Amino acid sequence: MTTPFDVYDTTLRDGAQQEGLNLSVADKLNIARQIDRLGVGYIEGGWPGANPKDTEFFRRAREELRLDNAVLAAFGATRRAGVAAADDPLVAALRESGAQVVTLVAKSHDRHVELALRTTLEENLAMVRDTVTHLRAEGQRVFLDAEHFFDGYRANRDYALEVLRTAYEAGAEVVALCDTNGGMLPGWVADVVDDVVSTTQGRVGIHCHNDTGCAVANTLSAVDAGASHVQGTLNGYGERTGNADLVNVVANLELKAGRPVLPQGLLREATRIAHAVAEVTNVPPASRQPYVGTSAFAHKAGLHASAIKVDPDLYQHMSPEGVGNDMRLLVSDMAGRASIELKGRELGFDLSGDRALVDRVTARVKDLESRGYTFEAADASFELLLAEEVEGARPSYFEVESWRVITETPGAADAEAVSEATVKLRAGGARIVNTGEGNGPVNALDQALRGAIGQAYPEVAKFQLIDYKVRILDQGHGTDAITRVLIETTDGASSWVTVGVGANVIQASWGALVDGLTFGLRRAQVR
Ligand SMILES: CC(=O)SCCNC(=O)CCNC(=O)[C@H](O)C(C)(C)COP(=O)(O)OP(=O)(O)OC[C@H]1O[C@@H](n2cnc3c(N)ncnc32)[C@H](O)[C@@H]1OP(=O)(O)O
Ligand SMILES: CC(=O)C(=O)O
């Protein structure tokens, strides 16, 4: 019989221990459904009894959570010292959670038993034995998280192994060795796991924190040494520096080690799921996250792009489709002709037959970037530049005559400033003068400009400014510095980013606003 291999997700428990992360019951149910679609075997839902939210999560999960792939696990501690397992209220909450699997955290480091539990080594073994036996008798499957196992093994190998043996003998299916303080390195983990597997003959799992930046590597090392159960979290969320990123772990196992651990085809959902979970946690996804980050397959250097034009594999360790990600070409002052050509292709322009045109666009990008523009973050402004070069004129739906903005306060020290903007332009064959008010000059300008253009193009009513970023580019000049503004606009279905640069923040904002509306109208196919 082959040993099973478990992929165990603890996003909703250890992941939720991340600073700044606060999940409602509805969030947890939503995340559980997303993670289930990745095909993991187990989802640890939280610690019932420790707080009302986690208790409520398990109650609602019983009624409304239907998982296709995963089994729900409840996390909790061994009974308290000196109390029968059946009488411990936190053990009762595990029993009553309705979870098929209970994962018990137990001390395996002698110093922790004495200092943190303030009990004897023998009583700690009894706590493990009694709690596992009790829950097994109640019909639950039991996994054990051996807390601080690696540090405990170094301090007192015999005792650390005795804790594991006690758990196995009482009926624990798997014991996950925890690098709770996250201080281990891959070679150390491998040596310990190897010893545990050969000494106990039990099924060994691994739970790593990322304090040395090695959580994923340590997990893979443990698997090489015989672990058959891996724990981790989506996006590497977790206490302090986080846990092993479960997507990285399974992608490495499946795509590098040739070891299928998820149902076939589901790894291709990884990018979508990692980003969907980030939406719920409201933690912005890290763009440089391996495999699923937006930069994971983004290419900036001209030399890279020129080789990618021949074969993307020349500068990629794998095809991004394997994890549901996309290759992206970035246009910047590091671009060469190949970057421009490939980016053009991505945006629907075939530039391959026109070397002079590609040279012109490359030169313009480099010149504009040297003056403070950035196109790698502002695809929409780049598309307008490209359209201008390809089509011979910049896409234009309105002609600006002038604009101005003033900011006024009534005078009292705590009075709120109000900005008012006036825009004069020609659009749809008419001269339009429009004013707008806002809580700041850019807001007022946006109102005035959209109001004016909207009179000729009603589509503009759908457009909304959703992000505004300002960066001072030459701090040495103080208030004379060049300002770069990036604006993100949405039409409700998609969004796009434009850039403006100027010595004056309002002027830079105006450039980005005009590009934003022009791009939106072009996308809406207004002619
Ligand atoms: C390594 C990990 O990440 S494990 C997961 C950690 N997660 C959490 O702590 C989040 C949820 N925790 C909680 O809500 C609370 O800590 C509770 C409800 C579990 C306990 O709360 P309290 O009773 O107020 O105690 P407190 O938070 O101070 O925890 C210490 C108690 O837990 C006991 N304890 C610690 N580890 C264990 C263990 N593995 N088995 C049994 N008891 C344990 C300690 O002996 C101490 O008991 P005492 O109060 O009788 O001296
Ligand atoms: C159990 C757990 O989360 C740890 O030891 O890190």
TrEMBL record:
Coiled-coil region:
none
| Domain Pyruvate carboxyltransferase per the UniProt entry, residue ranges | 5-272
Entry-linked SMART domains: LeuA_dimer
Kindly list the residue ranges recorded as spanning the membrane: none
One Pfam family of this chain = HCS_D2
Q: Catalyses which reaction?
A: pyruvate + acetyl-CoA + H2O = (3R)-citramalate + CoA + H(+)
To which protein family does this belong?
Belongs to the alpha-IPM synthase/homocitrate synthase family.
State what protein this is by name. Citramalate synthase
